[in-house]
Automatic annotation (TrEMBL), chain B:
GO terms for biological process: maltodextrin transmembrane transport; maltose transport. GO terms for cellular component: ATP-binding cassette (ABC) transporter complex, substrate-binding subunit-containing. Residues 1-24 form the signal peptide. Residues 21-59 are annotated as: Disordered. Keywords: Signal, Transport. The lineage of its organism: Bacteria, Bacillati, Bacillota, Bacilli, Bacillales. SUPFAM superfamilies: Periplasmic binding protein-like II. This is Extracellular solute-binding protein. InterPro entries: SBP. GO terms for molecular function: maltose binding. Residues 32-59 have a biased composition (Acidic residues). The keyword Zinc does not apply.
Length: 311, 449
């Protein structure tokens, strides 16, 4: 009798547990569905459709779809402008990683240093990121102008006339001029990320380290940096992906010119799709962009997982 | 519990639905993808409205997309008002857009199967893409062809069939600063040698001979078009385009490229010419401030001057691009174009009404208003010009023996892009004329043969 009652008791318990779990799953689904619908329609579906369109010779404005398999991709691999734009994207990735992240970190650390009026600088540092990209683009067009630009005037003032040039008018300097502008715009974004992460590091760690006699450099190397690692990895991914699909400033400042020297994959895709009426070919450019970004992200994530595993 | 869940779900749906329109609104100013959304959005709206209106005695709504701003935009609005007055119960939803985004927006709208009933273009190869795609209604017999200037109507005529009605025209002379020319005792040039002599004189006096913002590319194309016409004569381009004789790699084109690079090597253009943007006024600033002496530009420059620096107008003179000795072209052969051209979409549900709207837009009244307020030359015969400047430019157009339409608007867009890119490379001295012209010819073979 006693046994039976405990059994019953247990079965009720199991039942309630299962019911609870079912409810939980329902709740999760309920919360996720809206986002999933949006994500599915605007991301997953779009990616598949891009690939689908890339298999056709299609102008984008008529119903004349000519299926041609992977021919767009074969053309793409032989297209020197595409390779040039991929090269420029790699330059941008490299430059972003090597300047935006360190700059962001330095600025974030500066914000915690006991300098008077640092709050003012917090706003100043963050300013570029608040400006509209188009405004930044036009501003820098004028700064880089070869005839009356601010940069050339500055060079003249400090006696470096020999360095004066038309920064975005020459094929050799145009890409660097634009990359510098991109870095100027986005470094503050990483500053904010790092700043938030630094705030999250417990004060006690620093206190303990000080008691043990650690110098500022040691504290940075052994406490701040390791604890920032996850956010640095996230920033690196953001920065790499952002650079791979970058579009805005190029469109505003150079339109990919002069002579394709600042062409990026995204601007090339835009040109092919909307200027040259090659929706099919443009789609193959954007799908390749997706694949490249996807593979790189995968590598970073695997690398990060391994690193954590080692620790 | 379940109820609460449902509530959360519903609430989130409300948020999503509420968010969507604002999102698209915000993105109207942006580029690329957001454009698609907003483009499609207006589309669906207009589509559903015209669906409703197909029932009799319901109000009809037509959509009109154009890119005219300032006084020209007002002329369009006035024409729309006249149309609405004549057709009670018909509302025209006018959407005025920016030049460059408009191009991609219309492509997306056409591709999505929901284009506006009436849209504007520049005729030429761009409109032809839509014509070939079966998206544009033929209006050969709907309009009175006799009221239009022949050269203007030809820009939207493909194989004897008319697909658009023009309002205005533009020509491209060489504008110059009269004060500088008078101070230095320079006369308007008759030959290309005179012109290079002027370039040298201006250089000696530390004045940039030609101001040019060639990041925009079409600006530099003017020089190549003129040089090519002056070398190879008025038929050179049409032969190359129609594949009936000389090609884009003809000796005349190559020589034109050499002449252009000769100018570059003489430093006839400002420093960093390929990085300067026409739309932000970088080239005009040099002209206004007296740092540069000349500019090859369409007559809309007069409009820019009046808008940006009215006191400069009295210094502004113009002459026609001089002939080259030994070349087949002549000084009174001009480069010009047509804008705007209005067309009806094939998929419009009210084609007849839309055609009426096109006729009202491309009418003598509209073009008179545009000529007198915006300084456009009329594409419709019989306009009396009040503005002496426009009268003068219009006289030039009438006395010219041949008109070369802009390459970039006449050629198919993909070929036009190659022409623009190679011309920019020529000016940047990063390509030889032989290479550049071979590249254009190669693309032409691919697309036109």
């Amino acid at each position: 009798m006693g046994e039976a009652s405990t059994q019953k008791h247990i079965s009720i318990k199991v039942q309630t547990k299962a019911a609870k779990k079912r409810k939980e799953i329902l709740a999760i689904i309920g919360f996720m569905t809206p986002a999933l619908i949006i994500y599915g329609v605007y991301v997953i579906y779009s990616i598949f459709m891009t690939f689908y369109y890339s298999l056709f010779d299609w102008s984008g404005i008529d119903n004349n779809f000519v299926f041609q398999g992977l021919e767009n991709y074969i053309t793409l691999f032989q297209d020197e402008v595409f390779w040039e734009s991929l090269g420029n994207n790699s330059l941008l990735v490299g430059a972003s990683l090597l300047t935006q992240l360190p700059l962001g970190l330095i600025m974030a650390l500066l914000l915690f240093s006991p300098i008077k009026g640092i709050r003012f600088f917090r706003s100043v540092f963050f300013m570029p990121f608040l400006m509209s990209t188009v405004a930044i683009g036009i501003l820098f067009i004028f700064i880089y102008d070869g005839n009356f630009g601010l940069l050339n005037a500055l060079l003249e003032m400090i006696g470096l006339e020999s360095l004066q040039q038309a920064w975005i008018g020459k094929e050799s300097t145009a890409i660097w001029a634009v990359i510098a502008t991109v870095c100027w715009q986005f470094a503050p974004f990483y500053m904010i990320l790092f700043r938030a992460a630094i705030v999250g590091i417990p004060e006690e760690l620093y206190e303990a380290a000080s008691i043990d006699g650690a110098t500022a450099w040691h504290r940075f190397k052994n406490i701040t940096l390791p604890l920032l690692m996850p956010i640095i990895v996230t920033s690196a991914i953001l920065s790499i992906i952002g650079s791979l699909k970058y579009f805005d400033l190029i469109y505003v400042m150079t339109m990919g010119g002069p002579n394709n020297s600042t062409e990026l994959m995204a601007t090339y895709m835009y040109k092919q799709t909307f200027t040259n009426f090659n929706m099919g070919y443009g789609s193959s450019v954007s799908f390749s962009m997706f694949i490249i970004a996807f593979i790189i992200t995968l590598f970073i994530l695997i690398g990060e997982r391994k690193r954590r595993g080692v620790e | 519990m379940k109820f609460r869940l449902l509530l959360v779900f519903l609430l989130s749906l409300v948020v999503i639905v509420g968010c969507n329109p604002t999102n698209t609104d915000v993105s109207t100013g942006g580029e690329n993808e957001p454009e698609n959304e907003s483009g499609n959005d207006t589309e669906t709206e207009s589509g559903s409205e015209s669906n409703e209106s197909s029932e009799p005695e319901e109000d009809v709504t037509l959509t009109l997309w154009h890119i005219e701003d300032g006084p020209s935009g007002e002329a369009i609005e006035a024409a729309v008002d006249r149309f609405e007055e004549k057709n009670p119960g018909v509302t025209v939803e006018v959407s005025q857009q920016e030049n460059d985004p408009y191009k991609s927006k219309l492509v997306v709208a056409m591709g999505g199967g929901n284009p506006p009933d009436v849209f504007s273009s520049w005729g030429g190869g761009w409109l032809e893409q839509f014509v070939n795609a079966g998206q544009v209604k033929e209006i050969t017999n709907d309009i009175d062809q006799d009221i239009y200037v022949e050269a203007a109507l030809s820009a939207s005529t493909y194989g004897e069939k008319v697909y658009g009605a023009p309002i205005g025209m533009a020509v491209v002379p060489v504008f110059y600063n009269k004060e500088i020319f008078a101070d230095l005792g320079i006369e308007e040039p008759e030959t290309f040698d005179d012109l290079t002599a002027i370039v040298e004189t201006l250089k000696e006096n530390d004045i940039i001979p030609f101001t040019l913002a060639n990041q925009s590319k079409w600006t530099g194309s003017f020089y190549l078009m003129y040089l090519a016409e002056r070398m190879g004569g008025p038929d050179l381009f049409s032969e190359a385009y129609n594949r009936t004789g000389r090609g884009f790699d003809d000796e005349a084109y190559i020589e034109a490229g050499h002449k252009l690079q000769e100018l570059v090597e003489m430093e006839a253009f400002p420093e960093g010419v390929n990085g300067m943007n026409y739309d932000t006024g970088q080239s005009r600033q040099l002209l206004y401030s007296g740092k540069a002496g000349m500019q090859v530009m369409g007559n809309w420059l007069v409009n820019n001057v009046r808008d940006e620096m009215p006191e400069f107008e009295e210094k502004l003179g113009f002459f026609l691009f001089p002939a080259i000795e030994g070349g087949q072209g002549a000084k009174n052969h001009i480069v010009g174009g047509v804008s705007p051209v209005f067309s009806v979409s094939e998929s419009s549900e009210h084609q007849d009404l839309a055609t009426e709207l096109v006729k009202e837009l491309a009418s003598l009244e509209t073009s008179t208003q545009m000529a007198n307020t915006a300084g456009d030359i009329s594409a419709i015969k019989g306009v009396e010009y009040e503005d002496p400047y426009v009268q003068e430019i219009s006289d030039v157009l009438e006395s010219s023996e041949a008109m070369q339409t802009y390459y970039d608007q006449t050629l198919p867009p993909e070929l036009a892009q190659v022409h623009l890119d190679t011309t920019q490379a020529l000016i940047g001295l990063s390509m030889t004329p032989e290479e550049a012209m071979a590249k254009v010819e190669e693309k032409a073979k691919e697309l036109l043969d």
